[in-house]
Amino acid sequence: xxxxxxxxxxxxxxxxxxxxxxxxxxxxxxxxxxxxxxxxxxxxxxxxxxxxxxxxxxxxxxxxxxxxxxxxxxxxxxxxxxxxxxxxxxxxxxxxxxxxxxxxxxxxxxxxxxxxxxxxxxxxxxxxxxxxxxxxxxxxxxxxxxxxxxxxxxxxxxxxxxxxxxxxxxxxxxxxxxxxxxxxxxxxxxxxxxxxxxxxxxxxxxxxxxxxxxxxxxxxxxxxxxxxxxxxxxxxxxxxxxxxxxxxxxxxxxxxxxxxxxxxxxxxxxxxxxxxxxxxxxxxxxxxxxxxxxxxxxxxxxxxxxxxxxxxxxxxxxxxxxxxxxxxxxxxxxxxxxxxxxxxxxxxxxxxxxxx
Length: 356
What we know:
Elements: E1 5-10, H1 13-21, E2 30-32, E3 43-44, H2 46-49, H3 59-65, E4 70-72, H4 76-91, E5 97-101, E6 104-108, H5 119-134, E7 138-143, H6 146-153, E8 161-163, H7 169-174, H8 186-194, H9 200-204, H10 208-215, H11 218-225, E9 242-253, H12 256-277, E10 283-290, E11 295-301, H13 309-321, E12 330-338
Parallel strand pairs: 2-4, 7-8
Antiparallel strand pairs: 1-6, 1-7, 2-3, 5-6, 9-12, 10-11, 10-12
Helix pairs in contact: 4-5, 10-11, 12-13
């Protein structure tokens, strides 16, 4: 059976909600976050993106690129309420919904509550309902697996709808840049480039053994994806077990002060993801990769769950301060939160296709 999968991705979700709720922000460059020296952009409107403003960018950098940028503090209670409203729309079509975050989800509509054989028509209906019921726009990707559906949803943003049909999948993947592959970040892309892999076509030329040797377990998935394949099923009740983020430096660092500043930025990103996932744990873990690629981790379990940035930063800073670096230079810092205890992780859901 050919699956029918839809990936729905809200357009500039946080910033679009702020513009919806405040007419003065409409048509103007808006960033959700704080303009302080150590602040970070949580989300940027499309007007701000035209100036090169992006999420996870330092607020000072964002202001340099767009001096008239409007900073708006986040309203996570509103974002969660709107996300729940959108989730109810999804559930009108299928119970197989896998949320990846507040603003995106997979839906398996191979068999759906509407009895509609066309995943494309369902995706179009969902987009229209989201617009009518929330005043927001969403982009949709339709295909026969999750990998392709997710790429498709980003293909014609904002307010886009793109379909990758089974017969066109391999040729479509061959044209992609490796940066467009889900799970290929900046560091992995650079490593691929060093080995002459820049497009899906280049990736397809590599044997599975070579890819596993270069990228570990992820190499298996890259091998399949290069052929337009992805056998992962939609998981409607995936439970978040941890939240993390990391940063690889342009130049190795050995200054404790510089490392603290870098860790502070990573902690801000982790806190943003914790809020997004509504996941709060007790164990804080710092990951350190040295210039020689040796990796160490140091953890601290707190008596209560971490629910605000000050708790997270205090624990992370203490762990770093108590870690003997042995005078070595550091190329990467990571930070994670786990061990939810009585805190229940967020649930997620997925999607599939049949007739396009």
